[in-house]
Design brief:
Blueprint lengths: L2 H15 L8 E3 L8 E4 L5 E9 L6 H18 L3 E11 L5 H17 L3 E9 L4 E10 L15 E4 L5 H9 L5 H11 L4 H10 L3 E4 L4 H13 L2 E5 L9 H6 L5 H10 L3 E3 L5 H7 L8 E5 L4 H10 L5 E7 L3 E5 L1
Parallel strand pairs: 4-5, 9-13, 10-13
Antiparallel strand pairs: 1-2, 2-3, 3-6, 4-6, 7-11, 7-12, 8-11, 9-12
């Protein structure tokens, strides 16, 4: 569902639960759009709660389960937390072989185990289109919750994974993706954001989010609006997965990219020397993308080093400036 439609359907829930101060232990909820809900249990512990699920993005059942699980847990990491517990959320056609469904669940379970969490149950229904994901509970210190708001003028914008999974998986469904490109894309999508989250807690950031269905620019705009600033992104510095540019040039854009463009274009100022192909990739919806962070300039070098120490790429893609919205330069 697109962001404008989502905001509309959530309005009745906000009317019931969104009154300021009504729930003092609800640190992050519907009052402000963020990656997950956060509820304070005591002075040292807060729960992070999130859920996500989607249809297959790859053909292999085990790989699909692993990617879906990594994506579902990513919101916990975006808030700076650790995964504690998860339950499966799934729908499969009634005639689908049980062994195939088991492989999806196995892929998800292995990824949750890698995260240090536990799958403790779930719910599965009959559905003509396969869907799988998790409802995830994480833990974070109440004073160390990382949200989308808080980016400050002068901050450096850092990204921990390249983009392009939307166009590559779209090409894959059309049998038009190179096997090596698809394998690289799968590796990125199945990579947990756990070490990136730990780096954020070790060094400190002003704000963060994970890059998923709204594309890099959609999630950047959410951060910019929550922080009342402008994100200036240098397009040439945005990392791309191998093959993404060629698939975009061939028109292998998912429908979500067009929805993202229609929503975002009033908020995005684009320099004339930014190519349309590169621009389209910034709207490309991602599956299990990296973390986008706003890092103080005097902590930038430390963050680069900490991410490298943890085996996480560190791409500096822009800076925070005054105003509100997105500015793109070549």
């Amino acid at each position: 569902m697109g962001p404008e439609a989502l905001a509309h359907v959530l309005r009745p829930i906000k009317d019931i639960f969104g009154a300021p101060g009504a729930h003092p232990d609800l640190l992050v909820g519907l009052a402000v759009s963020d990656d997950a809900a956060v509820y304070r249990l005591n002075d040292a512990q807060a729960l992070i709660l999130t859920t996500d699920f989607f249809p297959p993005v790859v053909d292999d059942a085990h790989t699909y389960g692993a990617i879906a699980a990594a994506n579902s847990m990513s919101d916990v990491y975006a808030m700076g937390g650790e995964v504690l517990l998860a339950i499966n959320v799934a729908g499969f056609p009634s005639g689908l072989p049980a062994d195939l469904v088991a492989e999806v669940f196995r892929g998800g379970a292995e990824k949750v185990a890698e995260a240090g969490g536990i799958i403790a149950g779930g719910h599965t229904i009959a559905d003509d289109e396969p869907k799988y994901g998790l409802a995830v509970t994480g833990l974070v210190h109440p004073d160390r919750v990382i949200t989308k708001g808080g980016a400050q003028v002068g901050d450096r914008l850092m990204l921990t994974k390249p983009i392009g999974s939307g166009v590559i998986t779209t090409a894959g469904r059309a049998q038009a993706a190179d096997a090596a490109h698809m394998a690289e894309c799968v590796r990125w999508m199945a990579t947990l954001n756990r070490e990136a989250a730990r780096a954020m807690q070790a060094i400190g950031v002003h704000a963060a989010t994970d890059v998923t269905g709204f594309g890099l620019l959609g999630h950047a705009l959410e951060m910019a609006q929550a922080s009342n600033v402008t994100f200036h992104v240098s397009v040439a510095t945005v990392p791309l997965m191998s093959g993404a540019l060629s698939y975009a040039e061939a028109g292998q854009l998912p429908g979500g990219a067009h929805r993202n463009w229609n929503w975002l274009r009033p908020h995005v100022q684009v320099d004339a020397d930014v190519s349309q192909v590169h621009l389209s990739l910034l709207y490309d919806p991602q599956t299990s993308g990296g973390l986008l962070m706003a890092v103080a300039p005097d902590r930038h070098a430390e963050m680069v080093a900490e991410l490298a120490r943890r085996g996480v790429p560190a791409y500096t893609v822009g800076e925070v400036i005054a105003g509100q919205g997105i500015l793109l330069s070549a």
